[in-house]
Each structure stands twice: as structure tokens, then as C-alpha cells.
Specification:
- There is one protein chain.
- This protein is mostly loops and 87 residues long.
- It has no helices and no strands.
- The protein is extended and about 45 Å long.
């Protein structure tokens, strides 16, 4: 399913592939530095939380369904972060 053009609930237990293109930034990583990636399905309280039930989105008083997201790092299919290098 093309999630860029359609809204649809995800099926529990199904693996989906998402490509998220972020804006360009420039950060220098020196030898020994580490990169930490934080994956979350919300940005509360900056934005109201998605109720995860297919109903009204982002209602401050709506009941919420817990969403469990998995980032694969030790089995197939692997999740990945691609960091291009500047010349």
C-alpha cells in the first residue's frame, strides 16, 4: 500500500517498509563520536497524541489505543539509517 497517498490502519504483526526523507542538515561527527537514533510514534505534548484506533485523530480527550512499534536490528528485515557524507 502506498501510505503517501492513502490513510489506512496497519495490521498487527505485519512488517511494513517506510522511507522517511528528512531535510538536509550538516553535522560533523569526529572520531569516537556516536549517533543515537530515537524512534517514536508521537511528539506529545508538542502535538496531540494519535489515538491509534482509526477514529478522530489527535483529540485531547479521546481514548487511546497503545501502539507497539518495532525497529528490527538483529533479524531480517533490518531497519537502517542512511547518512550521506558531504565531500
Amino acid at each position: 500500500m502506498d501510505f503517501s497517498t492513502a490513510e489506512a490502519l496497519l495490521a498487527p504483526g505485519t512488517v511494513y517498509s517506510f522511507a522517511i526523507d528528512l531535510p538536509s542538515i550538516a553535522i560533523t561527527f569526529r572520531a569516537g563520536h556516536r549517533v543515537r537514533v530515537v524512534v517514536t510514534s508521537s511528539n506529545y505534548p508538542r502535538f496531540y497524541a494519535n489515538c491509534n484506533d482509526g477514529g478522530v485523530l489527535y483529540g485531547p480527550d479521546a481514548p487511546h489505543t497503545l501502539a507497539n512499534n518495532t525497529v528490527f536490528h538483529a533479524s531480517m528485515p533490518l531497519s537502517r539509517l542512511i547518512l550521506p557524507l558531504a565531500p
